[in-house]
Each structure stands twice: as structure tokens, then as C-alpha cells.
Design brief:
Layout lengths: L1 H8 L8 E2 L6 E7 L3 E5 L5 E7 L11 H11 L6 E10 L2 E11 L5 E10 L4 E9 L6 H12 L31 H15 L1 E2 L1 H4 L12
Antiparallel strand pairs: 1-9, 2-3, 3-4, 4-8, 5-6, 6-7, 7-8
């Protein structure tokens, strides 16, 4: 038993401990040695793998609402907004799945997604950035036209949403807009979920307490 504990303590997590399929992507190097790697996808989206060898700066929460509020508070000083926040599993490890959107200049949105895999003494973060390029606002314009053709009247006062349940970023619209940045983002997050693996010895190290994902 003493030998088992000694071997367990000798496990050293590194950026190499977490892997996912990057076959079709262009590897742009380890921008921060042993801490950050960068790839570019064929759609020119950026995927980054970060390793942080310190305890994660996260609150211990019990609900998705608490977690979303934590991230929302952190974004208050910027124009960024939380699109989705949830508990997940990646490489058979508890994870946080976060999507945000940030206005770009002069127009359009940058959609950012992240998987955070927190452990007690370290964490991995996979970040993805997908920019809206070319003609922007097409998704919103098409969905607005569909609602108006159905006989609905939009709220144009500027106070509150355009419709009571107005959410052009919702995943049910992705099939209509396969090239939109949030569709690409969700596709990349799903790809990572399917292909990510973690070294078993690292996966067994003490974790950070997260609630289980919703069934």
C-alpha cells in the first residue's frame, strides 16, 4: 500500500497528459513552453490547449445558474455575454463547458468556447475562437424574417428582446447556418468531446468538486 501511494504522488501532469484529434488542423506551435499550444482549423478558427500547474481559480458551485453568474460577473466590464454554460465531461473527466460572444470592431461577433478540466492542484483549458467574417448578421436577419412571416410583431423599442423567446444563437438554428461561427464552435466542441483522452494516472489525481452534468 505504501508503494501505491508513492507511485501516485510521483505522477506529474503536463500539457501532454490531455490529447484530442488535430489531424486536419495546422499546428502553429507551443506559444508558451509546456503551457499553451495553438492550432488553426481549415475554417481559420483558433484552438488552444492550456495547462495551468496551479489550483484553479474557480468557485465551488452547486448549480449551473451559480456558475453562469460567476462568469457573467467576470464579463461585466466588457461587452461580452455568456451564451451557454454547463457542466460536462471531457476525456472521462468532469469539465465546464462555456460559450461566450464578444462584439468585434467594426462589426460582427467573435464567439469563444472553452472546456475547463479542473483538478485540485492544476487544470487544463481548451479554448476555441470563431470569428464572424464577411457579411455579418445574416443569421439574425433570416430568423427575424421567418418570425415576421409567421405573423409575429418584433419589439423595436430597444428595451428587452425582439421577441419573448428570441435567441438567434440557440443550437436548434445551427442546421440552417452551417458556416456561422457559433455553429462551427459547437462542431469543434463536439469533436473535442468525442476524441479527447487523458492519461489514466493523471485522471485519477484529486479533482476539483463539480456537480454532475444534467442527464
Amino acid at each position: 500500500m505504501v508503494g501505491w501511494f508513492r507511485r501516485k504522488r510521483d505522477v506529474t501532469p503536463t500539457i501532454d497528459s490531455l490529447r484530442f484529434d488535430t489531424t486536419a488542423w495546422n499546428y502553429l506551435g507551443e506559444r508558451q513552453p509546456n503551457q499553451m499550444r495553438l492550432w488553426e482549423t481549415p475554417d481559420h478558427d483558433a484552438v488552444m490547449l492550456h495547462f495551468f500547474g496551479i489550483p484553479p481559480d474557480l468557485p465551488q458551485v452547486r448549480t449551473v445558474e451559480e456558475l453562469s453568474s460567476f462568469y457573467g460577473e467576470g464579463l461585466k466590464r466588457s461587452a461580452a455575454k455568456v451564451v451557454e454554460c454547463d457542466f460536462s465531461r471531457v476525456a472521462d473527466c468532469p469539465a465546464i463547458r462555456l460559450l461566450i460572444k464578444v462584439p468585434q470592431k467594426p462589426h460582427g461577433m467573435m464567439y469563444q468556447g472553452a472546456f475547463t478540466l479542473p483538478f485540485r492542484e492544476f487544470s487544463f483549458v481548451i479554448k476555441i475562437q470563431c470569428s464572424e467574417v464577411g457579411t455579418t448578421g445574416v443569421r439574425e436577419a433570416v430568423l427575424l424574417e421567418q418570425r415576421m412571416k409567421a405573423g409575429e410583431t418584433p419589439n423595436v423599442s430597444g428595451a428587452g428582446p425582439m421577441f419573448p423567446d428570441w435567441n438567434p444563437d440557440a443550437p436548434e438554428h445551427d442546421k440552417l447556418f452551417p458556416a456561422h461561427p457559433i455553429t462551427r464552435l459547437r462542431r469543434l466542441l463536439e469533436h473535442i468531446t468525442r476524441t479527447a483522452t487523458m492519461d489514466p494516472q493523471v485522471r485519477s489525481l484529486p479533482g476539483f468538486p463539480l456537480p454532475a452534468p444534467a442527464a
